[in-house]
Specification:
The chain is an alpha+beta fold and 490 residues long. It is 51% helix and 16% strand.
Length: 490
């Protein structure tokens, strides 16, 4: 395991007999159905959902993703272990070098942590069975069928595995293991792991993007090395090869300019990443301090006051008040978690996501929003464009609430021949659109323009002192359209 990155691992070595994943000891295996107990899982009494614990876990994962994205998979394994209260937990990913013939374990928490870097075969193992059926499965005593688990200690009593998809493609599983009969998984465990699996999907995509960025930096280093070699050859051929030297010099100058331009682009991208991370951290910290922190303080004060309650009526009254504060705290943390990633986009699409956001926005800011979705069919929009469009419109409404003093907003969609057009119109105070385009305190406008440009589109602003119109145009996706989705904001 690469201790520095925390998630890159070498693919498992199966040269020794008895190692996890050694397919040479399959003899004597029993049928799959004899070790499955998934239906029993769903029939067991289930504990009540602990949304507060779940939200805390999601917020902790969000902090980990912002502070140290390279360790997010291990943080996720630790979180699964905590919320499932199991003996071991981890993540299995398909190998890529061999076309996905094996699963390997990049992150494990709990008693099986020494097995990080191990794995199982794709065609004969519990992870493979989960992906084949594309559903969570509960196993009992894995070693009875997959005999290569027999040397692994501590042994498995029950193992709950949930499929892990990225952009609709199966790439692995997340799992929790109980090592003795005292811990029995239930439907709440399945729900929690499914929720964490959605977060894992987003985190894995971010990690992949970061790895691609590192690869680009390595494309640059090779180019610089080639440049140095070219300059050395030019010096050796200078005598008697003046014409060739001149040709080679022009080539080197052009290559050097390209390398410098690439370096500038990488620096700009890195700066935007850092600014975005800092802004998001400040936002989360402010939200936690101003809202959730105050509510938790109220809870603490209320709990202390219970000690001084003189009769049962006072205790009940205080209990009702504390329940109300607790519900408000859960709602606030949930809102913050939804702000980190709008999961409703993944589950229901852009139209539902916008409708829910607009409803909450109208209630929060007391601004009426007329949202017309008649011409919006998000089924033809790639997920990257849906997310980008959602963020642009979210930024537009946020700016209106902060700066315009508007009482009403209308949002209209129109599908043109070659583009999707969105118009957002408010009845606020308006602004000087020309000067605001370069003003340092109008970062929201710049953010919208950058996001639209990343998707191949444009954003324009029209304001005449009374009201503002924002017009967004994005090209319609063609069958071979691959949008550039790089960027900094979540």
């Amino acid at each position: 395991m690469d201790e520095q990155s925390g998630w890159k691992v070498t693919e498992p070595n199966v040269s020794q007999k008895g190692e996890v994943g050694d397919t040479s000891i399959f003899c004597g295996a029993v049928s799959l159905e004899s070790i499955l107990c998934t239906e029993e899982l769903r029939g067991r009494p289930s504990r009540l959902p602990d949304h507060q614990r779940e939200n805390r876990a999601l917020v902790a994962l969000a902090y980990a993703l912002a502070d140290s994205p390279s360790t997010i998979l291990q943080t996720l394994a630790d979180t699964i272990l905590e919320v499932s209260q199991s003996g071991s937990a981890g993540i299995s990913l398909l190998t890529t070098a061999d076309g996905g013939k094996r699963f390997y374990w990049p992150a494990i928490a709990g008693k099986w942590k020494p097995h990080i870097g191990g794995g199982t075969p794709r065609d004969f193992g519990p992870c493979g069975d989960v992906l084949d059926r594309n559903t969570p499965l509960l196993f009992r005593h894995l070693e009875r069928r997959y005999t290569y688990f027999q040397p692994v200690t501590p042994p498995v009593d029950e193992a709950l595995l949930v499929p892990f998809h990225v952009e609709g493609k199966a790439v692995g599983t997340i799992w929790a293991v109980a090592h003795d009969a005292r811990r029995k998984f239930d439907a709440e465990d399945e729900r929690l792991m499914g929720s964490l699996g959605k977060f894992a999907s987003s985190a894995y995509q971010i990690l992949t993007s970061l790895d691609a960025l590192k690869f680009q930096v390595a494309e640059r280093e090779r180019a610089e090395a080639a440049l140095r070699e070219s300059e050395k050859q030019l010096r050796e051929l200078a005598d008697g090869l003046e014409t060739q030297v001149q040709v080679r010099t022009r080539e080197v100058e052009q290559r050097n300019a390209e390398v410098l331009e690439q370096s500038k682009q990488l620096r700009d991208l890195s700066n935007r990443l850092l600014r975005s991370q800092d802004d998001e951290r400040r936002h989360i910290a402010r939200e936690l301090h101003d809202e959730a922190g105050q509510m938790l303080t109220s809870l603490l004060v209320g709990l202390r006051s219970l000690e001084d309650a003189r009769n049962l009526a006072d205790v009940k009254a205080q209990g009702r008040r504390l329940r109300k504060i607790t519900a408000q705290t859960i709602d606030e943390v949930g809102r913050l978690a939804r702000g980190l990633h709008p999961t409703v986009l993944d589950d229901h699409g852009l139209g539902v996501a916008l409708s829910r956001y607009v409803d909450e926005y109208a209630k929060t800011h007391k601004i009426a929003v007329d949202l017309a979705l008649d011409e919006l069919d998000s089924s033809y929009l790639p997920s990257a464009i849906q997310i980008g469009l959602y963020r642009i419109l979210q930024e537009a409404l946020t700016n209106i609430a902060k700066h315009s003093g508007a009482k009403a907003v209308s949002m209209r969609f129109a599908r043109l021949t070659t583009a999707l057009e969105v118009a957002v119109i408010d009845d606020g105070c308006g602004f000087d659109a020309t000067s605001a385009a370069v003003s340092s305190h109008r970062l929201g406008i710049q953010s919208m323009r950058e996001r639209a440009a990343m998707l191949g589109g444009t954003v324009s602003f029209t304001s005449h002192g009374k009201g503002t119109k924002i017009l967004l145009q994005l090209p319609l996706a063609k069958p071979d359209f691959q949008p550039h989705v790089g960027g900094t904001n979540p």
